[in-house]
Amino acid sequence: MEAEMTVAARTADLTGGRPVVPSRGVLRPLGLSEVRITGGFWAQRQATNGRATLDHGREWMDKLGWTGNFTAEVGHGSAERRGREFSDSEVYKLIEAMSWETGRQADPARDAEITELTAMIASAQADDGYLHTAFGRSGQRARYGDLAWGHELYCAGHLLQASVARARTSGDDALLNVARRVADHVCEEFGPTGRDAVCGHPEIEPGLVELFRATGEQRYLDQAALFVARRGRRTLPRHEFGWAYFSDDIPVREAKVLRGHAVRALYLAAGVVDLAVETGDDELLETVAAQFDRTLARRTYLTGGMGSRHLDEAFSDDFVLPADRAYSETCAGIAAIMVAWRLMLATGQERYADVIERILYNVVATAIGDDGRSFFYAHTLHQRSLTPVLPGDVEQLGFGGGPRAPWFEVSCCLANTARMLASLSTYVASADDDGLRVHQYADADIDTTLADGRRVGLRMRTGYPDEGTVGIEVTAAEPGPWTLALRLPSWAAGATVTVNGQPQPVSGDRALLRRDFAVGDRIVLALPMRPRFTRPDPRIDAVRGCVAVEQGPVVLCAESVGGALDLDSLRVDAGTDPAADGGVTVRGLTEELPERQWPYADAGPVGQRTTRDVPLVPYHRWARSGPSTMRVWLPTT
Ligand SMILES: [Zn+2]
């Protein structure tokens, strides 16, 4: 650990709209009421999310009967229930997204919608607190009869998270009361003398810890500890994907790396960080941090995406990161942000903010269409062919090549993206014992108090990530020195910082500006935004000998809309720096390769070569102008 946890224990706090509220840690998270994104790259996406995506999610969930499953008309579930076992969780995640959105920006209509959905959900709750629309009623399977695939505790976990989001962004505890009864039921059923079992899909763990944080109810934390202790004993049934799929192959404390189904492993890791922080178990915290660090070092794509096996949506072995088979599910990216954020709050290590930024610009921003109503589920880094899109074949969309899809039968990613975007401002900055830290650069207004109670305000304005200049003006300050820390991304060698025009020393992973700030002080951070070549570890065989191009936090790609440029034969001259005159280009050549009867010989084929400047675009922009071929990793000449 970089530093001891220094912020004193805090009491349960339902104000301010923070997604994660640890009782100790190096950093104190700021809430929606303290940080507002006001313009630029993310404000535009937040506006679209709050308007189009939330409506879109509701329309589809109504149309498919997922919300209706909670109502008396279909018997609160019963045999007429529609959708997969986890569809309840999508309604909960949508409510969580709506809650952060109403916390971000008051919206009486959306607020009423949450109230309506809450009443619907409450009406489906059994007398003993159990709540799931697919199990336990006449004509349905028995409760907890299929822990591997039933997703009952998974859905409960999302309900708990949604209820905490609602409570932290409003004075309304109706959903929190439903969640408490669910959690009480789970504690009865799975407590020390109850079922000795875990759910096939982790998620209840972070949900229980957050509900503990919101209510102070110790038994919820104890139950999370029990679930974490029970995982890894292979109590779930044997399965063709192996126990690693469920993270049930080895105990959490013995694992060295994340493995198996990526979203499952990452949700579990988030819950384990929460648990370790609340129980003061620094050994457990170091264990899960080491697992995540090793996963970053060996099992993560350049985009920050995780999961390279389509078959089981899973992590593969170390360095098995094929570009054209990148699964990199949107939800895995968001779950990795959850883990990174929790680790950064606990340890203060700024490098986790680099990880968050990488995922935001290259997975989250890629996942959603400009209309806020279309989505990628998976994120390939190499699209070879133009995906033929058959009418009505919605599932075929959204995996690359063709348009983003309006919906999926498994539509986990949509509401996940919505809750991430609605709560995004809370990831911009945090407070520590010395002052404030800025982690993400965006147009944002910050108004908060320091650890000693002094009020401080900042106005940040920037064209980032298109431009590297970030201007920060102090808008509120009280006498006495404090430290403003600005993250220096790992790629930003040569960054400069001035305060009121005076250059400041810059080194390490953040610029530390300690002074008696006054209203009107101006800080300017200049990050170098020249496009740069990036080379992979040679153990990533699939892209050995290739380069990628990055510009600031943004991964670029070569894209051929309609397949007009032959990306199969493209090679680039890595000895000539990428040019950045009105758009990034690299020197490269394409080759008209002859057809052969057998694709192997003592020498490669030689065809007509054409030297050209190849334009690159941000990876998050790909496939927005129609079906295209695309590659991030470019072979060199
Ligand atoms: Zn998903």
TrEMBL record:
A GO biological process held by the record: carbohydrate metabolic process
InterPro entries found in the cross-reference section: 6-hairpin_glycosidase_sf, Beta-AFase-like, Beta-AFase-like_GH127_C, Beta-AFase-like_GH127_cat, Beta-AFase-like_GH127_middle
Domain Non-reducing end beta-L-arabinofuranosidase-like GH127 C-terminal, chain residue ranges per copy: 531-635
Coiled coil: none
Domain Non-reducing end beta-L-arabinofuranosidase-like GH127 middle per the UniProt entry, residue ranges: 436-529
Ranges of residues in domain Non-reducing end beta-L-arabinofuranosidase-like GH127 catalytic: 34-425
Pfam families the record matches: Beta-AFase-like_GH127_cat, Glyco_hydro127C, Glyco_hydro127M
Lineage: Bacteria, Bacillati, Actinomycetota, Actinomycetes, Micromonosporales
Protein name: Glycoside hydrolase family 127 protein
SUPFAM superfamilies: Six-hairpin glycosidases
